[in-house]
Design a protein that fits this description.
Oligomer: single chain
Radius of gyration: 21 Å
Helix content: 25-40%
Shape: globular
CATH superfamily: NAD(P)-binding Rossmann-like Domain
Bound molecules: nicotinamide-adenine-dinucleotide
CATH topology: Rossmann fold
Length: 416
């Protein structure tokens, strides 16, 4: 199949491209490198050094013997989106290119507006371009399990049967998101569902759980590594915990640490996306997949990180700072995830093994984390109006580069 990936330079887009190429699919990518710029904006960088994009492409050619086609551009530009779709005519479009940080969206009004305008605009541009140019293509849209929030009942895959005042219907399950970012995903879901209905498009809306891990079987070379964000704005809780342990800081689950979420290993998330691509939704179908493998509480993740750190001779402690977010810190959490298994999904990685693998990689890049350790503490507060100034007042990053020659964050240097 010919698969177009929006956000191919990102954490999940990059390994997905490698995974699909290795299985014989043709892959075309789009990116504008905004994640690289925004991670720099908060004074951070990926713990794994990420080469410039031309170098990434060269490494793919050398290691996998395959070409990855690429279009640099912004999904905010409708003409660009329509022209790429018209030129490439993909069978499937995996849409990953969105502002994906909840804390980033909570910094202030400007970050909230940017997040929602960009995310909804990109999705609408893709939907309109698909209708105009390739209405048979299958859209695999990355949503998030965070759309559902943490209701006190089981969470179905998108829809549930309701009986109200003696009448029954199957309706979208109520969403109760926890940040402006997560609400942008909810609004996206409504738009994708509506477009499939009125234009007979095919779509799979992936309620993606939190992904963990840096490696997939295709990442056999340092130049092929994907990014690993560890700062409070862009890093996941598990990423932060491992980075904290690696540089000798306490591991800090927010609040009581009873917050439960769905998680999936990077390799298994790639497997799931491939299964969704290879088994497309039907014309007019809006299919929802809850894409996670197991649920863990933040305390359980902290404990795994502490235990594995000890295996590497790192004596980490666990501390509980106040939760900067507004969320239940102890709650029921039981989402259903049957559809993926129905498509053939099988777990290949266990949490603790992947955490061990991450430690091995991160210890190699310890100096890069050490140089940016000031970005690990929680600064963005859900209730405060001062997050932007708190971020600005944070200790600046040291200017010295800890590992010269190991790759910068500026993709444009060799793209000009
Ligand atoms: N990583 C996770 O654990 C996780 C969990 C749930 C949902 N998701 C969703 O999966 C998707 C991918 O996540 P990720 O972790 O790979 O994020 P990422 O930020 O690493 O990757 C997104 C890529 O898209 C690009 N991009 C963003 N806006 C763009 C635009 N307007 N035009 C062109 N390119 C643009 C960025 O430069 C980046 O390379 C996101 O939609 C995210 O919300 C991720």
């Amino acid at each position: 199949m010919k698969v177009l990936i929006t956000g191919v330079d990102g954490y999940s887009g990059w390994p997905l491209a490698l995974h699909l190429l290795a299985r014989g699919h043709e892959v075309v990518g789009i990116d504008n490198f905004v994640t690289r710029r925004r991670v720099s904006e908060v004074g951070s960088w990926s713990a794994t050094p990420i080469p410039s994009f031309p170098r990434r492409l060269a490494a793919v050619k050398e290691v996998l013997g395959r070409d990855l086609a690429f279009h640099r551009g912004d999904l905010q530009d409708f003409d660009f989106v329509r022209d790429v779709l018209a030129r490439e005519r993909p069978d499937a479009i995996v849409h990953l290119a969105e502002q994906r940080s909840a804390p980033y969206s909570m910094i202030d009004v400007h970050h909230a507006v940017t997040t929602q305008v960009e995310n909804l605009t990109g999705t609408l541009h893709l939907l309109y371009a698909m209708r105009a140019v390739c209405p048979d293509a299958h859209l695999v849209k990355m949503g998030t399990m965070g759309e559902y929030g943490t209701p006190n009942v089981d969470i179905p895959e998108g829809f549930f049967e309701v009986e109200f005042r003696g009448r029954k219907d199957t309706l979208p399950f109520p969403r109760r998101a926890g940040s402006w970012y997560h609400w942008s995903k909810v609004f996206d879901s409504g738009d994708v569902m509506f477009a499939t209905g009125i234009w007979n498009l095919r779509a799979t809306d992936v309620m993606q759980g939190v992904i963990y891990g840096i490696r997939t079987p295709e990442i056999t070379d340092r130049r092929l590594l994907t990014r690993f964000d560890f700062d409070e704005t862009w890093g996941t809780a598990l990423n932060r915990f491992i980075a904290q342990a690696v540089v000798g800081l306490p591991i800090t689950p927010y609040g009581k640490g009873g917050q439960r979420r769905g998680f999936i290993a990077l390799e298994d998330s790639m497997q799931s996306l491939r299964l969704a691509i290879e088994h497309p939704a039907s014309p007019g179908e809006y299919r929802v997949l809850n894409q996670f493998d197991a649920a863990y509480s933040v305390n359980e993740l902290a404990e795994v990180a502490r235990r594995v750190a000890a295996e590497f001779g790192l004596a980490a402690t666990i501390e509980h700072p106040p939760d900067p977010r507004v969320e239940a810190e102890d709650h029921y959490y039981q989402p259903i995830h049957d559809r993926l298994v129905g498509l053939g999904y099988r777990r290949t990685r266990e949490l603790e093994d992947v955490v061990r693998e991450i430690f091995r990689d991160l210890i190699r890049y310890r100096k890069r984390i050490q140089a940016r350790r000031h970005v690990l503490a929680a600064t963005t507060q859900w209730r405060s109006e001062d997050s932007a100034s708190a971020l600005a007042a944070r200790a600046p990053a040291p200017t010295a580069h800890p590992a010269p020659g190991t790759g910068g964050e500026d993709p444009a240097r060799s793209l000009a």
